[in-house]
Amino acid sequence: MVTVSLCMIVKNEEKTIGGCLSSIAKAVDEIVIVDTGSTDQTKAIVSTFTDKVYPYKWIDDFAAARNFAFRQATKDYILWLDADDILKEEDCNKFMELKKELDPSVDSVTMVYNYAFDEYGNPTSRFRRNRLVKRENDFKWIGAIHEYLDVKGNIVNSDISVTHCRIHRKSDRNLKIFQNRLMRGETFTPRDLYYYANELLDHQKYNKAITYFDKFLATGKGWVEDEISSCGKLADCYNKIGNTEKELESVFRSFRYDSPRAEFCCRLGFHFLNLNRYESAIFWYKLGAGLKPPEDDWGFSNPTCSTWLPHLQLCVCYDRLGNHEAAYEHNELARSYRPNDSSILQNKKYLDALLQKDQ
Fold it and tell me: How many domains, in total, are found in the chain?
């Protein structure tokens, strides 16, 4: 059986680090914590799990800190997590089984990252990341911010999920790092342009975000999933500044890079629904409902847009067209995903009454 070092970088994570380490401690053989300047109880908490706690002077470079953490590992493979991540019990059990069965020829194992959730705990944002890598390969982290692990070789896609449990409010730390880099005259890579635009959007600097998303797309050198994502975020920006025409144009722009994604189909469905063009809305919602991202898809996806949401909206469209049987059918499909949703239950009550009256 292979051995695993868990390597993490942390700072002032007293509210989450205990839950993170508790969720995975039994499944790893070594825990390496690199602290970049905590002033709370983080170091005291992690010391109950490991004595391998290393101070590190923060230099506004996440890749440098993560690479330092990886260099402290001594086991066969390295697992990385952030302090507000956990492995649920079923995923931890899967991870322990993976350790028993993992072929040493594997260079990396990917896991699904469930990043955001609705009120029922269902993922609304998920994507894959390389999570477990062979230590002797000396894979490096790249990028001062929004860093990525440069991995190649024999990569296995697992069904293990890492669950993000964010409790921190967004800060301007990342935005300031980007701005300081610009002030120093650094040249941004396409990836930098994309993530800087994301930070601008998060801080409601919509016009400037539009400028940098356009700069990123103009390079023609971005990862296709980031290009598609940029089109959606451009649409968000234009929506916020009230430019409906450009919002719609940005949605259709995404089709240049790949076949339609469920998220964009639902946006188009909503657009036509608001114009009372129900047949057009139905076309796009039905298309979205039939689009499922592949299990090994690396791009960001929102399962909402291919599960309950398009069916709920199809219920609305068919009801307004007077086709209550179809409305009921799609509401039931939505209810299969969200059985306790008050809106869906209210629709059921309303449609039950109508259909009984029609008999």
Answer: 3
